[in-house]
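<amino_acid_chain>
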Amino acid sequence: MASGSGDEEGNTEGGSWRLIGPASELSKKRCRLMHSSLGYDSDVCLFYVKGDFFAMDARCSHSGGPLCEGDIEEADGVLQVFCPWHDYDFDLRTGKSGTSLQQQVYEVKLEDGKVYVKHPSRLSLQPFPADQKS
């Protein structure tokens, strides 16, 4: 089951549904880095935890740490990712932290066995060639 809805705080308003790939393949890893056609600062992490997919900006809003490399834990029913650099936590559903930090989250949907993420740019599991960024 995919997670996220358009009215959650921290969710992006704009964007289009971007096909990421088959859920059967994407569910084999806890986190995958999705490269944005807008460049490094717009990359997204796709998490698969407890049967749900979640998407948020790949770089920690504190200092840019790689959230795909962070630990994922559940506390009081809240799934959180911890930045590996300074241990800041972010709720996978809302992007909220135990601090004043906020991480951008994106809607995820499953349709016909495929995973889609709503994002303003094209997303790919492979880096975009430098001349194709837009």
User: Anything to note?
Assistant: The chain has one helix and eleven strands. Helices lie at 23-26. The CA atoms of residues 12 and 131 lie 26 Å apart.
